[in-house]
């Protein structure tokens, strides 16, 4: 079991930057692939970025070149550095931890942190 707590959201002007943090606790952080997802009002949740335990990353096309996901296994923390923010980035951002098991997969979610990019 993993507990996830996001922080770092807030209000920022277009073109600004924020760094989101997701602190994990419970067990076996190094065994999980980590990800960030977001959900804007009235829209479906969408993938933003993922990072495997080995450091391989994947990004949504909409954030490539602007966002960077990273992890510090010593601190059990995953980060999302968001640069050149746009109003379209406004959403609740959720941290995800995922581990494959024989029976399928385990997924854990944080409570979310609000990012608002004002025009």
Give the distance, in angstroms, between the N- and C-terminal Cα atoms: 40 Å
Q: How many strands, which pairing sense, and closed or not: the largest β-sheet? A: 7 strands, mixed
Shape field: globular
Helix content: under 10%
Number of helices: 0
Written overview of the protein:
- The chain has 119 residues and is an all-beta fold.
- The protein is 0% helix and 55% strand.
- The strands form two sheets. Strands 2, 4, 5, 6, 9, 10 and 11 form a seven-stranded mixed β-sheet that branches.
- Strand 5 (46-51) and strand 6 form a beta hairpin.
- The mean pLDDT is 95.
Which terms would index this structure?
four-stranded antiparallel sheet; single chain; 119 residues; seven-stranded mixed sheet
In short:
By secondary structure, the protein is mainly beta. It has strands at 3-7, 10-12, 18-25, 33-39, 46-51, 57-59, 67-72, 77-82, 91-101, 104-109, 113-117.
SSE layout and pairing:
Layout (H helix, E strand, L loop, with lengths): L2 E5 L2 E3 L5 E8 L7 E7 L6 E6 L5 E3 L7 E6 L4 E6 L8 E11 L2 E6 L3 E5 L2
Parallel strand pairs: 2-11
Antiparallel strand pairs: 1-3, 3-8, 4-5, 4-9, 5-6, 7-8, 9-10, 9-11
